[in-house]
Design a protein that fits this description.
By secondary structure, the chain is of the alpha+beta class. 42% of the residues lie in helices and 19% in strands. Strands 1-2-3-7-4-6-5 form a seven-stranded mixed β-sheet, sandwiched between helices. A five-stranded mixed β-sheet has the order 8-12-9-11-10, with helices on both faces. The N terminus and C terminus are likely disordered.
Amino acid sequence: MTQPMANPSTSAHSAPSEWVHLTSIPFAGGTVERYRLPNGLLVLVHEDHSAPVVTYHTWFRVGSRHEKPGKTGLAHLFEHLMFNETEGLKAGEFDEKLEENGAESNAATWVDWTYYYESLPKERLDLAIQLESERMSRLVLREPQVASEKDVVANERRYRVDDDVEGAASEVLYKTAFTVHPYHWPTIGWMEDILAFTPEDCLNFYRTFYAPNNAVVVVCGDVEATTVLAEIAKAYAHIPASHIPPEDIQPEPPQREAREVTLKKPTTSAKVYVAFRGPAFGDADHATLTVLNEILFGGRASRAHRILVSEKEMATDIRGWVSTFTHPGLYEMNVTARPPHGAEELERELYAIVDAVKTEVVSQEELDRAKARLELSLLQSLDTAGGKAEQMGFYETMIGDPAGAFRRLEAYQRVTAGEIRTAARRYLQTESRSLVRVLPEDEDPDAEGEGEDESEVAE
């Protein structure tokens, strides 16, 4: 899909004087206008008058990657704290005001970013601006507020990780594959760190990362840019920039040999979690591996589904994902066995599928199908104002290009069968493979090989 040439934006030339207009970028039949305030706040505006709604996103360039050992989970804790009390709002009032005005809101935290959003009628955009600027600068972080949210997050960890087979296996996979990089720990954090957080920990984190010069605001919907910019400037211009310390991260050293962990869990089916070293999201190889992943795991016509599910009836669920991280991540492959088949059978078949794409070129039919599925996925993500805002916020935060999704699609279309084989040989190497094998608790360990439980893997 080729983007149209941008027309000069009239709103860009009539923006309030506080703003610096950076660029006008083609996006989904219109443009994304990029502006910046003197305090560093970056704002993206995309006018879409197809429906009387607007979505307001605030992306912060902070995630679990920016934490330190002993303080893991702070970024995720803030996702909860930000819905709590501010100097101008009592606990619960943030959500109440949005609900009273027909809005929906939520948030997400990941390894490289955290974002918050509101989708609401266009007449109530001013409410989102007021609420978001309030919690960016006036969040209350005293003992009662912090203690309450720590309990909520601790319970969330018990539910999503400690008592969940897939959550526990995924956590072990990452702490097995990474030894020094912050991707080693889970976004939700280790339990002992969550319980030990103090208000001072939270205040230092807040003052450092929750600042206008570390944020991207995205406004998408039935709006006029000039009016929006005036309201945002009034609400945010007084908030001071913070000092963002230089990132101090040790790169993950090369992996020289395969790593394996076996877990015994309350499950009726064996599960296999395999991860190979993967490129950073901004690396040219990432698009190539994404197309390969679509060939192997994308839908019922994919190789893995056809071989493992349809033909051999060995598996009930298959998934693959190339991690979309700022730093080099993983290429994950997850398979759930269909009893009576076991983990070792799945491993052998999965490795055979992987080896095949390293020796032979994929067919043109497979390549065309994968590219069509990836294009359809992007188009579907742009159906709503919220979907457009999420795409703009993600790509701006990750690579500094709010229309990066379209550049990405062009990169998919350029991928050749030969490039896929080369990338498979580069990344799908046995020595850089990490494996987590999940066995039912009542299964004879001698049948699958002795292993260790999750608690025996060092953090």
